[in-house]
Amino acid sequence: MTTICIKQNQLPSLLSLLAKAMLKKGREPLPSINITIDGFTFDRDNVNRYNTCCGLPQDRLPLPYLFVATQPAQLLLLTHPSVSLKLLGMIHTHVSFHQQTPLQIGKAYDFTLGVIQCIQTDKGLEIELEGRFTLDSVYLASYRSRCLLRDKLPTNDRKKTTDATGDEGGQSLAWTKRDKLTLTPQIARGYAAVSGDYNPIHLHWLTAKPFGFKAPIIHGMYSVAKMFAAIDSTVNQVEFTFRRPAFLPSIAELEVREGELRLINSEGKPLVEGHYC
């Protein structure tokens, strides 16, 4: 196992790591790599800018921000010299969060990021990373992020991979319409400014097209943040599954029912599905 110990202020910028990621080639399983950061802190100004952009309360540390704040560490791991994996075209498919104790803005924690699994599935190479926050060796909170590097599928198989609705098997409570989200390129660029995620697929149709998208798409983690803002109660565990991209500009509708949320497009198809408790 390779362990990288680094200080938070030594992490490269997301922009430089994205540039490095574009040069990655190969399709080898991820080696065992851990990144550790002692004394990781969440800056109040950065958290509040994120909260303002996503409609979240000020001076609170929302669970999705645990992922956002540590994105440089994620890309540092994926662009490590021992990694031989083409990162372009990788799809974010799932993210989950758990907290034993809510983390606080400005307090120092120990953060560890590692590879949980890297397996070949019938859809492609699936990669899962886990980020864990501890204090004095006591576990406090974590997230898991799953991505897919898709194999080329026959045309008649593609629809089967994207049309899940989350309502299979038995009767369920009806969905209640909660809110409409207007998604625009301007919103995507604003989110990029507060999150540091300047992935070109989100910024302009000219930069999204080379990656197979007919138009720019909203950040999946922006959708997650807006959905998280709709949860009225304190939650200790929440997960989100990304079903299909939301092209820009477009209008999405947020629907809720007990313990569940979903974001649907104008055709009524799910973009993101969430469960919490």
From TrEMBL:
SUPFAM superfamilies: Thioesterase/thiol ester dehydrase-isomerase (SSF54637). One of its GO terms (molecular function) is fatty acid synthase activity. Residues 178-237 form the MaoC-like domain. InterPro entries: Fatty_acid_synthase (IPR003965), HotDog_dom_sf (IPR029069), MaoC-like_dom (IPR002539). GO terms for biological process: fatty acid biosynthetic process. One of its GO terms (cellular component) is fatty acid synthase complex. This is MaoC-like domain-containing protein.
